[in-house]
């Protein structure tokens, strides 16, 4: 095996919500054929993430919900799983009680990626937004009166949708008070809205990379690419870090390569550059021995 290529999906592999450009598919197939292990690590549900990856015909790993679950594909064997428990719900209810937006429970792959939400706890404006988002992303949303039916169960993540001004403080509270990992990203459906996704504090995209390295070989080089703040741990865990041109400064500041945005298929040239850098480093190390 040559190494691991760990990729975000939205804004990195795909420019559109559901489609990978055929040229990107061809590039990924080339790397896979030459011995690189591909891993896709996304905040998406399995249902949504897998829908975009269906054109890929080679084996890969798919980590969803920012790493709460990682499956080996195509057999769908569970490699990593760290879910939240129902004990979190009363605390979240208290925090969201005075807000015009509620949180949504993302149940996980095992429950057909149902997204449970309580319409009575959202303002009319947010309900309209969620209706449009659900239709566009084809997520499996289920309206409920309460979350009592989740007693004794676990779930992959919680999400809430906010303005930038609201999202950053909410993320801090979820992490400090409720001990979640809660990165903030722009909603791929509407860039004016921020998504705060809370998962088990142990888990991040970088955690997935480290676990895969343990499975496949600690010394394997890792190339990683991403475009949003939840990709910061992903890049930090990699040897060669690719930030897309659309990425925030926090990613670009640590990047080895800044790629053109996904709308320009920037991942393609960036992967070739990254592979060349690794080849040069390996050659230098051999000569030094």
Summarize the structure.
By secondary structure, this protein is an alpha/beta fold.
Percentage of helical residues? 25-40%
Proportion in β-strands: 15-25%
Q: Which secondary-structure class do the elements indicate?
A: alpha/beta
- Low-pLDDT residue intervals, each spanning 5 or more residues: none
- How many helix segments? 9
Described by strand count, sense and barrel closure, the largest sheet is: 8 strands, mixed
> Order of strands side by side in the largest beta sheet?
5-4-3-2-1-15-16-17
* Mean residue pLDDT: 94
Distance N to C terminus: 22 Å
What would your notes on this structure say?
There is one protein chain. The chain contains nine helices and 17 strands. It is an alpha/beta fold and 289 residues long. The chain has an eight-stranded mixed β-sheet, sandwiched between helices. Strands 7, 8, 9, 11, 12, 13 and 14 form a seven-stranded mixed β-sheet that branches. The longest helix has 23 residues, at 266-288. The chain is globular.
Task: List its salient traits.
289 residues; alpha/beta; 17 strands; 34% helix
């Amino acid at each position: 095996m040559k190494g691991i290529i760990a990729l975000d999906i939205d804004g990195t592999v795909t420019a559109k919500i559901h489609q990978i450009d055929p040229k990107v598919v061809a590039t990924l197939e080339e790397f896979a054929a030459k011995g690189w292990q591909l891993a896709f690590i996304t905040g998406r549900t399995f249902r949504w993430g897998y829908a975009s990856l269906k054109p890929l015909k080679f084996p890969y790993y798919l980590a969803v919900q920012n790493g709460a679950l990682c499956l080996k594909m195509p057999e769908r064997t569970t490699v990593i799983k760290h879910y939240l428990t129902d004990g979190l719900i009363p605390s979240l209810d208290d925090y969201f009680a005075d807000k015009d937006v509620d949180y949504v429970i993302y149940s996980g792959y095992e429950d057909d990626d149902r997204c449970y939400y309580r319409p009575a706890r959202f303002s009319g404006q947010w309900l309209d937004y969620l209706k449009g988002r659900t239709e566009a992303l084809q997520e499996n949303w289920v309206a409920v009166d309460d979350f009592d039916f989740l007693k004794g169960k676990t779930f992959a993540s919680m999400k809430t949708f906010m303005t930038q001004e609201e999202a950053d403080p909410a993320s801090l509270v979820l992490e400090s008070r409720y001990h979640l990992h809660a990165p903030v990203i722009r909603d791929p459906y509407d860039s004016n809205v921020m998504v705060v996704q809370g998962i088990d504090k142990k888990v991040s995209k970088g955690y997935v990379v480290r676990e895969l390295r343990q499975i496949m070989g600690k010394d394997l080089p890792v190339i990683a690419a991403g475009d949003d703040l939840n990709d910061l741990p992903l890049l930090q865990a990699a040897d060669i870090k690719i930030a897309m041109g659309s990425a925030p400064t926090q990613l670009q500041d640590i990047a080895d390569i800044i790629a053109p945005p996904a709308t320009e298929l920037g991942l393609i040239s960036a992967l070739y550059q990254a592979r060349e850098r690794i080849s040069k480093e390996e050659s230098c190390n051999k000569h030094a021995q």
